[in-house]
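In this supplementary section we document a worked example of the pipeline. Step one takes a protein sequence of length 145 as its only input; no multiple sequence alignment statistics are reported here. Step two produces a three-dimensional model, which step three serialises into structure tokens for compact storage. The input and output of this example are shown verbatim.
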Amino acid sequence: MLSVGGAQAGEGFVLTDMQGQQHRLTDYQGKWVLINYWATWCPPCLEEVPDLVMLYDHHKEKDLMVIGVAQQYKNRQEVTDFVDDMLMSYPIVLGNKSVNDQIGHSEILPTTYIYNPQGKLVRIKRGLISRQYIEKLLAGKLPEG
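The serialised model returned by step three reads:
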């Protein structure tokens, strides 16, 4: 198991999105779960959002959950405006110490924590993540770990 932050990653998490809905890792058994750390000022984050939106919209009912975690933001309104401008359809969580303690820290943005359908953290992808990369992951064409 990957050790992230102060906890063993994959023990599960409970995150509350900007709409007040809670998301638990256990809610998504049988699906790949991507926890994507991003910031409004980050060019690679801006670049990957359309791929994440497209993948989430096409796979959310089948085999994929995406949760975005806004990092290094000035205020809630800044995040809300960015989410609206980018048409981000997946849940967005405001990053804080509790989130970082549960998931892990991000020295590089974007960073994506990837959990397999059994709920195990199998990969931490630092930097830009692409639609092709995620599609390979969903198709089982990337080794775990």
